[in-house]
Amino acid sequence: MRATITASGGADPAVAWARYEHLDLWSTWSPQIQEVIAPTTRIAAGLNGLVVGPLGVRVPFEVLAVDAEAMEWSWHVRLGPVHATLDHVVRPAPGGCTTELVIDGPAFAVVGYRPVAALALRRLVRRDLQPDGSPAKDL
């Protein structure tokens, strides 16, 4: 099953892209990610690693393609027999940016992941997201 999820927000496109590009930032905007274990700190084609999720579940991944200039990247994840491919893009939009995720995998996995991914993408494109993942506080 294929599903497309989009989110728009006030983040500058370069900021949203940097949140994708730097693995150490993933846990700041994607609440289901506690840690990313990989030999480098930036996405690159051919990179293999583990995403550590709730309860310490480790999900192996491979980055398939990255086009930093176009702000597009793809990766493949698997958990046991369940495999999925996720294609991401960031685009400029009035007042900020839009991000799109196309996920291709078994229907039960895509349907179950869709609300979690939608929340993460909304956080990815937030202008006021702090390094710890919290919204900025008004002073």
Structure description:
The longest helix has 18 residues, at 107-124. The protein is built from 3 helices and 7 strands. It is α+β, with helices and mostly antiparallel strands. It has helices spanning 13-21, 26-29, 107-124, and strands spanning 2-9, 35-37, 48-52, 58-67, 72-79, 82-93, 96-104. The chain has a 7-stranded antiparallel β-sheet, covered by helices on one side. A hairpin with a 2-residue loop joins strand 5 and strand 6.
How do the helices and strands line up, and which of them pair or pack?
Blueprint: E1 2-9, H1 13-21, H2 26-29, E2 35-37, E3 48-52, E4 58-67, E5 72-79, E6 82-93, E7 96-104, H3 107-124
Antiparallel strand pairs: 1-7, 2-3, 3-4, 4-5, 5-6, 6-7
Give a brief description.
By secondary structure, the chain is α+β, with helices and mostly antiparallel strands.
Radius of gyration: 14 Å
Strand order of the biggest β-sheet: 1-7-6-5-4-3-2
* Distinct helical segment count: 3
- Average pLDDT score: 94
Main sheet properties: 7 strands, antiparallel
- Per DSSP E runs of 2 or more residues, the count of β-strands stands at 7
Overall helicity: 10-25%
Task: Please report the distance between the alpha carbons of the first and last residues.
Answer: 46 Å
Structural class: alpha+beta
The global form is: globular
What portion of the residues fall into strands of 2 or more residues?
35-45%
